[in-house]
């Protein structure tokens, strides 16, 4: 009988509330109808007894869809009623390499493997410079060392063949060879002119090759004008040695100065948030730069990757759609001197427009965010990437400010310990589309209560964008409060406000 005495909700309000029953890992709420006419002893809808009796109702769906592995229960005492369970989102830390079905890892690496590529090795060798730059350091250093060793050995063989064909290694032409063989040194022809002096074997040829390529020249070994081929090989080896050094130094320098390493000091917030800004649902995330050297011409892009079925029935499993994002003023380019909150307004052109808090939990998509700009110190272009899954979007949260002015030093200080911190704010759990339809139905284009009207006054509709601290009131119809068509008031309260406004990650 008590349930029948409660004011019945109109069909649009039932549909609106049934589609917004569970937040996307954000503010835990306690729903209640107008308690003015209710019995104080009657259990509130947020209590376990009330929620257990509502099969498929408001709190029944709330308990069903919330991920309890991320929630903690605590008793919150109420002045007007018994203690009610408190649902708080427990933000967990995770590794960027945790196994998840995502395209871009949190650290910016792409989770894409190229397979079954025809002539893969030939294609990589055709662009050997990029291949070595992208390779790991151990392979680059191995190629670096092998290039020099192989060139030394190759020219050592050439020098050995030259002196061998000219007869420089014969005992009668070389004192060292004669002494090694025990020959009489008086038999050595003192007038013989070798191609390379002081060479007695392959080891001597190898040492001469190293000395020639790197212009060491220890003094005793040198070529003569006796053999033109020796002069040509000496010039050729000098040129080849310079080319190898230039090539390998270029690879090492390119690896050390890669813009990819600059992205290690570009930060993305661990979570994205959805809250109200200027009367619109907005998806927001934060970007920051730890270095004093700034990113010039910095701009941010975002894409959502999701499944889509075309009008012709074609299934696009990884459909990419651009999201319009910008800084505080919604400009694509940002003045990146301190951490900036990037905003995507969820309007009728946004793919998130029809999604409510509960529907976002069931959706499967990935939002890839990209920060691009020119490194001030090197002039090279860099790109930092990250991504957000639906489970990493906090509905009803807002980022904490982290820039303060210090009067003692006269400087602005950025506290990066607050970079990932958020706090809870009152946010409608319905979709942006449902909220716009609600405003149009009541002829209200702006948001928030009228300053000259009372919260429950006739002819006023409060959309709940900036609700009072502990409640959010929605009016289903306008009319006289004394008539039978008095507006039905739905109050949404947040017991987390008593626990404190901050939600630290």
UniProtKB/TrEMBL annotation:
Family: Belongs to the inward rectifier-type potassium channel (TC 1.A.2.1) family.
Catalysed reactions, as listed in the record: K(+)(in) = K(+)(out)
Protein's recorded name: G protein-activated IR K channel
Pfam family, any one: IRK_C
Organism, as annotated: Schistocerca gregaria
Chief place of localization: membrane
Membrane topology: Multi-pass membrane protein
PANTHER family in the record: INWARD RECTIFIER POTASSIUM CHANNEL, INWARDLY RECTIFYING POTASSIUM CHANNEL 1, ISOFORM F
The keyword Metal-binding appears for this protein: no
TM ranges: 139-162, 230-254
């Amino acid at each position: 009988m008590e349930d029948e005495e409660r004011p019945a909700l109109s069909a649009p309000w039932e549909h609106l509330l049934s589609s917004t029953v569970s937040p996307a890992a954000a503010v835990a709420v306690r729903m209640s109808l107008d308690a003015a006419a209710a019995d104080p002893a009657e259990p509130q809808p947020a209590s376990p007894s009330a929620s257990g009796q509502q099969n498929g109702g408001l709190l029944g769906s709330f308990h069903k869809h919330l991920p309890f592995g991320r929630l903690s229960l605590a008793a919150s005492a109420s002045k007007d009623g018994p203690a009610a369970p408190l649902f708080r989102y427990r933000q967990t830390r995770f590794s960027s390499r945790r196994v998840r079905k995502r395209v871009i890892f949190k650290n910016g690496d792409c989770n894409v493997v190229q397979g079954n590529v025809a002539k893969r090795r030939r294609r990589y060798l055709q662009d050997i410079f990029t291949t070595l730059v992208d390779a790991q350091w151990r392979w680059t250093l191995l190629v670096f060392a092998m290039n020099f060793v192989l060139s030394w050995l190759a020219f050592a063989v050439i020098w050995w063949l030259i002196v061998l064909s000219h007869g420089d290694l014969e005992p009668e032409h070389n004192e060292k060879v004669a002494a090694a063989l025990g020959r009489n040194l008086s038999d050595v022809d003192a007038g013989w002119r070798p191609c390379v002096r002081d060479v007695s074997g392959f080891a001597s040829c190898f040492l001469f090759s190293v000395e020639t390529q790197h212009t060491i020249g220890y003094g005793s070994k040198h070529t003569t004008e006796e053999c033109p081929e020796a002069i040509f090989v000496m010039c050729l080896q000098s040129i080849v040695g310079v080319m190898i050094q230039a090539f390998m130094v270029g690879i090492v320098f390119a690896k050390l100065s890669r813009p990819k390493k600059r992205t290690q000091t570009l930060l993305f917030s661990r979570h994205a948030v959805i809250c109200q800004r200027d009367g619109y649902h907005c998806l927001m995330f934060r970007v920051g730069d730890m270095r004093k050297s700034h990113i010039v011409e910095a701009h941010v892009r975002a894409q959502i990757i999701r499944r889509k079925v075309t009008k012709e029935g074609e299934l696009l499993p990884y459909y990419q759609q651009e999201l319009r994002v910008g800084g505080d003023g919604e400009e694509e380019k940002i003045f990146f001197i301190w951490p900036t909150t990037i905003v995507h307004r969820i309007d009728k052109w946004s793919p998130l427009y029809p999604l409510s808090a509960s529907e976002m939990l069931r959706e499967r998509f990935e939002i890839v965010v990209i920060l691009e700009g020119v490194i001030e110190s090197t002039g090279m272009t860099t790109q930092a990437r990250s991504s957000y899954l639906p489970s990493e979007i906090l509905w009803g949260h807002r980022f904490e400010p982290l820039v303060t002015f210090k009067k003692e030093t006269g400087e602005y200080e950025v506290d990066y310990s607050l970079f990932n911190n958020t706090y809870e704010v009152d946010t409608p759990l319905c979709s942006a589309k449902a909220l716009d339809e609600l405003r149009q139905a009541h002829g209200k284009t702006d948001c928030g209560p009228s300053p000259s009207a009372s919260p429950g006054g006739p002819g006023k509709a409060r959309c709940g964008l900036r609700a009072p601290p502990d409640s959010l009131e929605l009016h289903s119809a306008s009319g006289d409060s004394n008539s039978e068509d008095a507006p039905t008031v739905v109050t949404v309260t947040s017991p987390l406000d008593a626990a404190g406004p901050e939600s630290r990650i």
